[in-house]
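Quick log. Single chain, no ligands specified.
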Amino acid sequence: MAHTIHVDVVSAEEQIYSGDAEFVILPGMMGELGIYPRHTPLFTQIKPGSVRIKPAGGAAEELVFVQGGYLEVQPNLVTVLADTAIRAKDLDEKAALEAKRSAEEAMQNKTSKEEIATAEAELAMAVAQLEAIRRLRNRA
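-> predicted structure:
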């Protein structure tokens, strides 16, 4: 039997995923992180994007969108503490496209650094959601 690692993805509202997996891939601040069983302990911030979980036993890959948060890795346990987590199948493409359009418009109309930073964060979130939707479509 292949080695596995237990994965928990939780948000403030609910537990999104809990189970054994062969590996997890998620968006770190400096790029994608691949976590396999017996990984070195790690605690780091994650950015908005897709968390890809390959469940043990050959089941189809799970895809969860997170709006940022933290990752804690222990040798046999991965915990994703997300600000907000949404199953990829529950993402709304129309809403994400509208959020992207609004953020782009806001970036053009804002003058203060704070307003621009807020608009940039909203744009990054919308783009990450659209990327998660694209990945989900490519799997189908």
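The first helix runs from residue 93 to 109.
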